[in-house]
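quick one before i forget lol
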Amino acid sequence: MKIDALFTATGIDTRADAANAEAAGYSGIWTSETKHDPFLAVALAAVETDRIGLGTSLVIAFARNPMSTAVQANDVQLLSKGRLLLGLGSQIKPHITRRFSMPWSHPAPRMREFILAMRAIWDCWNSGSKLDFRGDFYTHTLMTPFFNPGPNPYGPPAVLLAGVGEVMTAVAGEVADGFVCHGFTTERYVREVTLPALALGRARTGADLGGYEVSGQPLVATATSPEAMDDAIRAVREQIAFYGSTPAYRPVLDLHGWGELSDALHQLSVQGRWKEMGDLIDDDVLNAFAVVDEPDRVAGTLLRRFGDVMTRMTLYLPYESDPGIAARIATDVRSATSSAIDNRD
């Protein structure tokens, strides 16, 4: 299993984070689209590193169009010498329509077309094929030499699609190179919903899950002192509550029989009572969504839950913590994975 890191820089300059992650032995480092543009973040990281994978988790696809995204991704792929992991996500309707003022309709079919359109654009540049993509949501039929960057010596980047629901997850299996599990997921949901949906999508193309990338972001609450552990647990409860208040993520709670919790959390969020929401996350919910343990035991639990279903993993610690703890857990996971491979051989 590959172990990745998250950018922790509060500003746009990600060079130090990326260099430190590469020196620490991480396989990749991921940045999100929240306060800054993820393409700028990974571009800066590219010039400061040589080996580490550079992932976007996530680029909000529906805030863009396939052509602009294809151009930016192609540039970063070139700059990083083939190390871009292009993670895409749809976001939810209020953000797309009210924050970005962009259209929203039929998210799964639209995302399928978005990725296929990007691939058509990249194929035009790399193989010289005529650009002639005509879909229900996107049409790309013009590419003159003046705007054609030509073949990328590193080829197109790997495309990973994030999702929660079965329909979007199946789209990922069909048209993407990998899947990004949302942090709001459980082992049971991954095994009973995510993997079957990915397999369904892969089957549409005559493929299976062999060699398919599944990237996870498991929530972890850990610390070396009782006081710090209490703070970590509280932060993780609040993060679970925040995600659980989103109606689109209700299927995860429904699977466990916790649908009423979704209603309660959503009502509190509408009222702006964010701090109270964490109090609704009891220990059963907490331990289903997060690994809660001492640092030296976290790696074993992560591997028991996800070692056979995820190909790469990023630890999700939504609170201030000692970077050394995450690095130690990552080392433990890598060591255990290497030992398992050696024993199997």
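fyi The chain has 14 helices and 13 strands.
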